[in-house]
Amino acid sequence: MSVNRRQVMAGAGTAGLGFVLAGAVDAVFAGTANAASPKAFRGYGELVADPNGVIDLPKGFRYTVFSRAGKDTLNGGGAVPASHDGMRAFPAGPGRSLLVRNHELSPGTKDPIVPQRPGLVYDPAAPGGTTTLAVEGDKLLSHVPSLAGTYRNCAGGGTPWGTWLSCEETEATPATEAVLTKKHGYVFEVDPFGRLHDAAPVPLTALGRFAHEAVAVDPHTGILYLTEDAAKPYGLVYRFLPRNPRGGPGTLRAGGKLQALQVPSTRDLSIVRDLGTKLNVTWVDVPDPDATTVSVRAQLDNAKVTRVPKAEGIFWSDGVVYIVSSYAKTSEGAAANHVGQVWRFEPRRSTLELVLRLEPGGRFDSPDNIGISPFGGIVLCEDGDGENYLVAPSEDGTPYPLARNAASDSEWAGATFSADGRWLYANVQGEGITVAITGPWWRG
């Protein structure tokens, strides 16, 4: 194992990960059925080097690689597509899960694309989409394409009614890329249980056409919260008020109202440094969600919205929304520098609270996807410089590594737990692998 800057800084860098997630992490893994009683999470010790050079894990943990891009074959033929990204596990019976997995592929790629089978294709010129994997623990039962002909399917989010919202991180159109046959930058709903009356891809245009990153849904109100990973100007955080708030497969096609986040007198969230800072939030209507002539984020004056550099993962848990800003650089136009923020939005109070800020020089940087265990604990997927980890913080603000990509500097993505909390599924994008991790979660 090589020693790099981040390992050298590890001893001094922990103070840089300043979580104040009171009660959010104590039961991350200590609250499983195997635990006599919940206890404060204190990590699992140092990671043990993997003799196979794939994934380093704490002692007592193990992993299984069960899906490899370009090497394994999908049911019905065709190679497993590359560039695994966002993913969600849906319970599918005792011990079983259905994983819906994004593939962040762009036109011109040399990597295996999502097979374009009849009834699944939006734009035949686009190589991205999703695959659905049936698993039992770490055993793969089947895997099939479930959405094709889309562009840069980055992250997304699960719905309370058991579907996956797959997000295109682009604004490309046939006018900007002649190879395309349709406009892109939409959200698509994928139902792993086959309940959509019309399973053919339908862009949810009312949710906006922009560089979508991720989505979270309030199960009580049906309101959606969305992040945008874009620059010049920086992207926004949005909410979508659905016309049919009761939800259900296909109901988002009925439309609704798209609004952008505004924090009075704060034009760029990167400027906030003090943990625990709470900001009041209002929302501004988006004039043209389909961005007919002007990008959605450029339609709104800087005085009327609040911008978020590198807005990435978003996740609903226990009445609040967690929002990730991966990093901010003044050299790229941000108001301040940081290498990671996590915000907590409370819809009932309309307040946004800073619960994490990473400063340069620490062991961990650039959180991207965010997942939360069935017991309430946060897991962050790193997409940073040098080594990349799955990271979980304790309540007192100490970060602990859950896993390290030992094969390369490629990012982690799509961390998601089985419903019983026994298995953590995740992707390593560059290697194009999906893994299942298990072990004594209660030991921490």
TrEMBL record:
Q: What is the lineage of its organism?
A: Bacteria, Bacillati, Actinomycetota, Actinomycetes, Frankiales
Q: From the Swiss-Prot or TrEMBL record, give the protein name.
A: Putative phosphatase
Instruction: State one Pfam family annotation.
Output: PhoX
Q: What InterPro entries does the entry give?
A: PhoX (IPR008557), TAT_signal (IPR006311)
Q: Which PANTHER family match?
A: MEMBRANE PROTEIN, SLR8030 PROTEIN
Q: Which residues form a coiled coil?
A: none
